[in-house]
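So, could you explain this one?
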Amino acid sequence: MAEQTITGALLLGLLEGLTEFLPVSSTGHLLLAGHFLGFESTGKTFEVLIQLGAILAILSVYFTRLWQLLLAFPTDWRARRFVFAILLAFLPAAVIGVIAYSFIKTVLFETPLLICIVLILGGFVLMAVDRIKRPPRYTDVMDFPLALALKIGLIQCLAMIPGTSRSGATIAGALLLGTDKRSAAEFSFFLAMPTMAGAFAYDLYQNYNQLSANDVTVIAVGFVAAFITAVIVVRTLLDFVSRYGFALFAWWRIAVGTAGLIGLYFWP
């Protein structure tokens, strides 16, 4: 049983790192995969805490950029505005996440049928947004106005419904609000840092006293696997979406959601 648990953690960690920054819903993938694998974590904490691997992955890839922002912050108004834009975009999810935490973890996380439906609907939405052909108003994340950042942050709150995708919601929202594909994906990367770190810290605070030594080992395995695959995704995604857009991920969502519905019908 221990080997099966570690194996499940490894597989789910790889899946987390692969899907966290793609607009396909990493949480939806993890919950569906865990459902069919029979993988149960204490308080559904594993699915949130292994995001630390993805957080560290993006921090490692963007370390130089973040260091430059830190050095420029005291004197450069563009750097200050960008940092404030990220914090402003993070604020709605922080407030709603705390208020709705119990409902999200005990109801939404426990409803695989909802996850499948949302994956499919989100795929069609992403496909429609990807086909919009109009000149973007914003092509550099450093120039996103604060009002635009707040609107993207409000749209990000939709991702509290598993299957929606945090990155999918922020990217689609940014595109609808006039950004180009590359800057939409990059803003989603930066917004992921405080959002995922906040979710990690709050979930750990809520559940640390329930975790056993075995839970910690399983989470550590998932964390390492998530870190490795997330580094690869972050290093390649911007160039991919700049060239090919998001249609592939839209079809991916539809395929996974449909497969999940079939699986739930035959193997509930």
